[in-house]
Amino acid sequence: MNLRVLLFAGIAERAGTREWPLLDLEAPLTVGALVQRLERDHPFLRSVPYVVARNQAVVRADEVLSDGDEVALLPPLSGG
Amino acid sequence: MTVAPDARKQWHHLTRAPIDVGALTAQVADVEAGAICTFLGTARRHSEGKEVNLLRYEAYPEMADRVIAEIVAAAQARFAGAKVAVMHRLGDCPLGEASVAVVVAAPHRGEAFAACREVIDTLKTKAPIWKQEEFRDGTAWVGDPGSFQPRRDA
Fold this sequence. Notes:
Strand order of the largest sheet of chain A: 2-1-5-3-4
Structural class of chain B: alpha+beta
Shape of chain B: elongated
Oligomer: heterodimer
Number of helices of chain B: 4
Number of helices of chain A: 2
Number of strands of chain A: 5
Structural class of chain A: alpha+beta
Helix content of chain B: 25-40%
């Protein structure tokens, strides 16, 4: 299973990139399990507040991801 | 002629240019409306005691455009007869210029004011848009403590 993880604002700045492509993940994978894996591979995430969107909608940790999903890590919103 | 990939995307509620309030007002103006209420969020010089040089906005544009469209539709459904236009600026926003505009036309001023307030308040909590403040000594993302980056040449 392949996913794209999109990064924005302070998270993109800390990561030094706007996207992490994730290839050959084992299914089934929940949002929570993905977050655990991302926080293990990128420890800076543990000290940054964010919510997760899946295919452009905010999701809960127990939701199961599908091949080709567009996941996004959204730091605190500050539009307006 | 080659076109930059970003330039081909057409957003309904996002722009990298200064916001044209007249054009937004024309979108909602209606002879059935007795009131048009306009809210502009503008780039302010001071933020928590620090002097700001510039604001810079970034979005998850596909999601932000859709979320704003949903907010507009919800307000139009809730306030009968209201027509709502919203535009948010991306990229650099110089001090004093509008970063966001909400224009509501409605039969009476009560609904126009109420819908305008509801739209801007909801946009601020739901639209995936981020504001970076540029100070003399560096930059920081609003609401993200620890994102301060000192200026390289400071």
